[in-house]
Amino acid sequence: ARGLPVVALVGGLGPGWEELSRLGVRAALPAVDGPITLEGAMQNAAALLETAAARCASLLEVGALLGGGER
């Protein structure tokens, strides 16, 4: 990550996801927003990632509006 904050869009969050912080990931957001089969997730991957990216952008916008700088 070379010192840059990283947000990862991931398939899902399971046990041990916190380990991503060792790699420089500041936040991990799941692409799925509810129960779904692996097949369903794979078939709808593009739409799921697009929606997750929009949620991520909204969160980043809120952080900027709140004056969220480096902590």
Give structural notes.
This protein is α+β, with helices and mostly antiparallel strands and 71 residues long. The chain has one domain (6-65). It has helices at 38-43, 45-65, and strands spanning 6-10, 25-30. The mean pLDDT is 90.
Short précis:
The protein has helices at residues 38-43, 45-65; strands at residues 6-10, 25-30. By secondary structure, the protein is α+β, with helices and mostly antiparallel strands.
What is the secondary structure topology, with strand pairs?
Elements: E1 6-10, E2 25-30, H1 38-43, H2 45-65
Parallel strand pairs: 1-2
Helix-strand topology string = EEHH
Content-based structural category: alpha+beta
Strand order of the largest sheet: 1-2
Q: In percent, how helical is the residue content?
A: 25-40%
Strand content: 15-25%
- Outline the biggest β-sheet: 2 strands, parallel
Which keywords apply here?
71 residues; alpha+beta; two-stranded parallel sheet; 2 strands; 15% strand
